[in-house]
Amino acid sequence: MGSTTLRLSKWENDLSCPDIMTLPTLSEILGCSVDELLTGKGEAREAVLLPENERKAFEKLMLRIYVNSADGERVSVNLPLPLIKVFLEAGMSFEGMGGEKLGGMNIDWQAIIRMVEQGVIGKIVEVDNGGDHVEIVVE
Question: Does the N-terminal or the C-terminal CB of the chain have fewer CB atoms within 10 Å?
């Protein structure tokens, strides 16, 4: 794991902040403004169906899973959608990463991939279950 990846992971987990000089490059890579990076505004927007001419290439999309448990634990998982598609096509499961059940939910990963291929992005799943909060977002 590179040092940049480690620093971003620390930022995502509220352990540190990024060097201010990296923010413009990071915002360009993520397709958002520096303001959105710093304020969180625009984050996890509601699911929308984009017209073909406004869609990002599938290869550039990320699946983000956020879990905030009732006991205060926070987990964030970020996976490139093409990687998930390859795993599914190879018949692999996500049992090592929470299995087909996440926060007590049955997740149909194939359905999520099909929705995204048709142009759906944003917050696809949001569940509050016994104090646990789970969001699945495609960006």
Answer: N
